[in-house]
């Protein structure tokens, strides 16, 4: 839609009303601010939810893989064959044997429930999720003959343990006596403390070499599961379908969607509901543009009539008022994008400030899974938000624009 020179001049004058039209200018300013806040809120919330899902997915799959083959009864004796078969499956990148078992940990009278994870030394040193997030100590010290472990930072804080402390692990699977089964209590030295950023993992995980876990749990040469990574997590079911049929007699295959179905479904629903609610907020802001344009048309009725008698066309008037309303919406969108990106960049500082003002912990890791507020901005999503807001603004201009174009100069100027 191209404007002629006089149309641009009039549109510019209407964007900046005169002294006697301060109320119209106020309403237009409120409209601009409302669009800005709506766009900023939508960009911030959608980016945070995208970041939350991506961060949670990376942490979960970084420790649990895209799928696991679990042996019936908690033990997988033919794990070497299962791992070899998995590696031969097209689309599978890695197949890692693991031992996982819930136990109890004790240190200086404090007792906490923990989740033991046994991994081969090679897998321990090659796991990026663990090695990148070591707070203190070295994962390289975890060897079969070391009697060493690595624990999460939250667990260390809860137990009051630190690097070099000797923590006792209590296993119910101990020797059998005439009086029943006696629990096994074995002490291990803390060689490393890690913080992966997922509260439940940092609160419970105890990592050790596989041989050490097999000895502690009296498992012999068996493992609990084989962890599998694939080329495309979204196609994990399709990729592993042949493997699932081959291991069905001895084990069960579960992918990340099955293991965390409730969590990711809740995130998807929450994301949709939030987007809908905040879109309505932008729609309400756009109605302010409609109101300001209607008032502007009523205030400029005499000017419109004079323009019509001077040769202004109906289409020209439509373009003028569409331009005015769309410009208000466009400025609000640009300001909203800037505000949204600034708040996203300083999001941790904003949370700290709000916590200081309210005296409460705004981001509780025990409730939010992650220790920090994540954010991941999707350019296509931001573009769709901007286009949606601009489309709403354009639609809001149509009625006032056509109302102005339908002004009858004879009726308006009859008594002038």
At a glance:
The protein is of the alpha+beta class and 416 residues long. Helix content is 57%, strand content 19%. The chain has a six-stranded mixed β-barrel with strand order 2-3-10-5-9-6. Strands 7-8 form a two-stranded antiparallel ribbon.
Keywords:
416 residues, alpha+beta, two-stranded antiparallel ribbon, 17 helices, 19% strand, elongated
Explain the overall architecture.
There is one protein chain. By secondary structure, the chain is of the alpha+beta class. The protein has 2 domains: 5-58 and 263-413, no CATH class; 77-249, no CATH class. It has 17 helices and 12 strands. The chain has helices at 5-15, 22-64, 79-88, 121-126, 128-131, 153-159, 199-204, 210-217, 236-247, 256-259, 261-299, 301-309, 314-345, 347-358, 365-368, 379-405, 409-413, and strands spanning 67-71, 92-107, 110-119, 134-137, 148-152, 166-171, 176-177, 180-181, 184-194, 205-209, 225-230, 251-255. The protein has a 6-stranded mixed beta barrel with strand order 2-3-10-5-9-6. Strands 7-8 form a two-stranded antiparallel ribbon. β7 and β8 form a beta hairpin. α2 runs antiparallel to α11 (261-299). It is elongated and about 115 Å long. The two termini are 34 Å apart. The mean pLDDT is 82.
N-to-C order of helices and strands: HHEHEEHHEEHEEEEHEHEHEHHHHHHHH
Write down the overall geometry.
Answer: elongated
- Rounded to the nearest angstrom, the radius of gyration is 32 Å
The percentage of residues in β strands lies in 15-25%
* Strand tally: 12
How far do the termini sit from each other? 34 Å
SS field, number of helical segments: 17
Number of domains: 2
């Amino acid at each position: 839609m191209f404007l002629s020179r006089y149309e641009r001049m009039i549109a510019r004058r209407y964007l900046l009303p005169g002294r006697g039209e301060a109320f119209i200018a106020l309403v237009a300013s409120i409209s601009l601010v409302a669009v800005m806040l709506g766009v900023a809120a939508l960009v911030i919330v959608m980016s945070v939810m995208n970041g939350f899902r991506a961060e949670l997915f990376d942490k979960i799959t970084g420790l649990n893989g895209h799928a696991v083959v679990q042996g019936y009864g908690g033990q997988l004796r033919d794990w070497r064959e299962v791992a070899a078969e998995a590696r031969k499956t097209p689309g599978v990148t890695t197949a890692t044997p693991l031992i996982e078992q819930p136990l109890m940990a004790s240190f200086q009278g404090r007792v906490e429930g923990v989740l033991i994870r046994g991994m081969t030394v090679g897998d321990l040193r090659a796991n990026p999720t663990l090695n990148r997030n070591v707070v203190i100590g070295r994962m390289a010290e975890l060897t079969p003959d070391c009697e060493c472990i690595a624990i999460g930072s939250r667990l260390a804080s809860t137990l009051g343990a630190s690097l070099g402390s000797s923590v006792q692990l209590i296993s119910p699977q101990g020797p059998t006596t005439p009086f029943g089964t006696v629990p096994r209590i074995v002490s291990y030295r803390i060689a490393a403390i890690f913080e992966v950023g997922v509260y439940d993992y940092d609160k419970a995980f105890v990592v050790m070499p596989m041989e050490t876990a097999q000895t502690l749990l009296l498992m012999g040469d068996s493992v609990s599961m084989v962890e599998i990574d694939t080329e495309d997590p979204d196609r994990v079911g399709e990729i592993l379908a042949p493997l699932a049929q081959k291991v069905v007699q001895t084990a069960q295959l579960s992918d990340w969607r099955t293991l965390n179905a409730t969590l990711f479904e809740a995130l998807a629903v929450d994301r949709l509901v939030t987007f809908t609610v905040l879109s309505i907020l932008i729609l309400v802001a756009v109605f302010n543009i409609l109101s300001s344009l209607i008032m502007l048309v009523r205030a400029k009725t005499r000017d419109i009539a004079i323009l019509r008698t001077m040769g202004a066309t109906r289409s020209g008037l439509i373009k003028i008022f569409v331009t005015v309303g769309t410009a208000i919406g466009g400025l609000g969108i640009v300001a909203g994008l800037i505000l949204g990106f600034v708040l996203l960049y300083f999001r941790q500082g904003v949370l700290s400030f709000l916590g200081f003002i309210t005296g409460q912990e705004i981001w509780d890791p025990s409730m939010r899974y992650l220790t920090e507020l994540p954010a991941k901005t999707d350019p296509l999503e931001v573009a769709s938000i901007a286009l949606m807001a601009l489309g709403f603004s354009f639609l809001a201009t149509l009625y006032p624009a056509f109302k102005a174009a339908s002004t009858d100069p004879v009726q308006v100027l009859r008594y002038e």
